[in-house]
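Full entry
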Amino acid sequence: MDEEKEMLEYLGLDEVEELFRDIPSEVRDDIDIDEGKTEMETIKYVKDILSKNRSLDEFSNFLGAGIYRHYIPSAVKEIVGRSEFYTSYTPYQAEISQGMLQALFEYQSLICELTGMDAANTSMYDYPTAFAEAVLMAGRVGRGKEFLVPENIHWEKLEVLNNYLRGSDIKIKTVDYDEKTGKIDKDDLQEKLTDDNLGFYVESPNIFGVIEDDTSVFEDLKTDSKSIMIAGTSPLSLTLLEPPSEWGADIVVGDSQSLGIPPSFGGPTVGIFACKKRHLRRMPGRMIGETEDSDGNTAYCMTLQTREQHIRRERATSNICTNQSLMALASACYMFVKGGKGLEEVAKTNYEKAHKLAGKIDKIEGFSAPYFNSLYFNEFTVETPIDSEEVISKGIENNVLAGITLDDKFEKLDSSVLLSVTEMNDESDIDTLIETLEEVVQ
């Protein structure tokens, strides 16, 4: 009890009950395990409660905003599930880890091919951590202390970035977005590029699903202001769109979750991190290189690993002490299994289905799709005639996950939801969603 009291005092709490205050009371009240139950009886009791849960497979799923449901070929699952990959932690001993090291080297190569950048690491934890690490890296290679981010950025990325910048002298400033197009306001961006600017972040597709066009403007702004430009993107979309290297990006971040990784419970995913060659030694994480062994055979090793556990802490580029090796392997396998044409076909299917669905929704009285008059990839924003939360609730009643609400996260938006479409959404899914939305306005 003394330890419990000490713990509560340290946490600033009065009683243990406060540790569970974030769990809804209606959920907690359903759990009543008697002290007299045996282990077998307790397990059965808990399983009965868990049986009330429903999985994604039981719904017509249109969720997106960073986590997407794509078909993963069985070959990918088979390879990733092999014991030499699945149970290994990290390839410290190169002489016995050549398979994993080569796989990670190939992953890096594929990411460079997609993004058009010179170098990529073996991944970060996820998109938000990759983005936050990129801003810190910009601080190491650029000048100035003010970094610009678009107002229409995923809320979780902004939260992670703010956490990362604690103790840093880098200050965040937001750039407006155009309320008609959903794109970053280039005039506002130019106006806010002051002498104290460190860099700016541009995302395409962005949280609204909108694709930035006229990207040459970003390169001009970067050059004129001598800023570091970080580009955020979807790797699958890059099979159809110009790579960020064409925009003049110094650093590219994203997430490979759409390439062979299931949604699970929102993770794990794998953060993409790539950059220009001149910034290579300031890049966080690890990089696998190709070399030769003493007999002249091709061999792979960890070439750069400027992590605090390998070098003096004050010289480390990041305190992320590992990466998502297994997830990076899954993405590499997915890309190899699909091939270039296969990836492009998936992207085209996603694009076409999203536009087909938007056209159908736009014909429903009261709905407007897409919300923004801009090009979009596989997800888009929809204006709804009633409260967006009611649309989501109605969808769940009809076994449809009808996107996520956006108006509660962005003040400028009217009642709206974000819908994502992938190759997994067949005609019956789309019909069910349309029927649900039609019920909403009846």
Observations:
- The first strand starts at residue 60 and ends at 61.
- The CA atoms of residues 90 and 325 lie 7 Å apart.
- The chain has three domains: 2-50, 56-71+339-440, 74-334.
